[in-house]
Amino acid sequence: MPAIIHEQRDMTIESLMLTLSTGILFVALLRAPWINFRDAGFQHVFFGSCVAAFFLWLLRAGIVPEIPIHLLCLTTLTLMFGAPLAIIAAATLSIAMCLAGIETWQSLPLAFLAYGVVPVFISWAMFVASRRYLPPNPFIYIFVCAFFGAAASMLAAVVVNSALLVGSDQVSLVQLQESYLLILPLLMFPEAFINGMLVTGLVAFKPNWIPSFDDRIYLKG
């Protein structure tokens, strides 16, 4: 009987994650600015960014096999394309990882939610909060939105993924305490550094690729 109850609970959690991930992706598809894809240049930038992010996602590590760690770069994609298209990009990357045999299809909803939706939400929330409450300064944009936004998104992704795995009894809390709590800050720094450098380069050399950096606000405001 306990085994049956445990199996039913796991199926319920998986069903909830599938429903939630499908719903979020559906909303993103509805709200995405598809008109932008009429511009061939935008298409090249978007799909090129997705391909580059895919290769970064291939660089994986993890002490516990159920909790792989890889660079996300979703903060940069969020600042470049906005939250809806960043979520669509994350879904595309998650599916690509399954097609490549790196992730299982069963884990797709969890991976998409933890390593896709959550980082995009955190990155966009920090961008909106900085725009509303902090001075309009290029350094604020780079350090708060890009550097700290990326660090916070990695932290949130690992925490949410770990919580879902512990809740479904796939990983024990002891394993998490022994493996990730001590090194989590070290995992956040590469994500923050790479996103910070990418956004800095875009702001300096390709500002038209990152419309969230508005010259009228950050340079003339």
CATH topology: Arp2/3 complex 21 kDa subunit ARPC3
Nearest-integer average pLDDT:
89
Could you name the CATH class?
Mainly Alpha
Overall number of structural domains: 1
What's the alpha carbon Rg, rounded to whole Å?
18 Å
By DSSP, the count of extended strands is 2
Strand content: under 5%
CATH architecture: Orthogonal Bundle
Please summarize the sheet with the most strands: 2 strands, antiparallel
Structure description:
The protein is built from nine helices and two strands; from the N terminus they run ααββααααααα. It has 221 residues and is mostly helical. It has a single domain, classed as Arp2/3 complex 21 kDa subunit ARPC3 (Orthogonal Bundle). Strand 1 and strand 2 form a beta hairpin. The longest helix has 30 residues. It starts with a helix and ends with a helix. The N terminus is likely disordered.
Question: What topology emerges from the helices and strands here?
Answer:
Blueprint lengths: L1 H30 L8 H19 L1 E2 L7 E2 L3 H8 L1 H17 L8 H26 L4 H30 L5 H7 L4 H22 L9 H4 L3
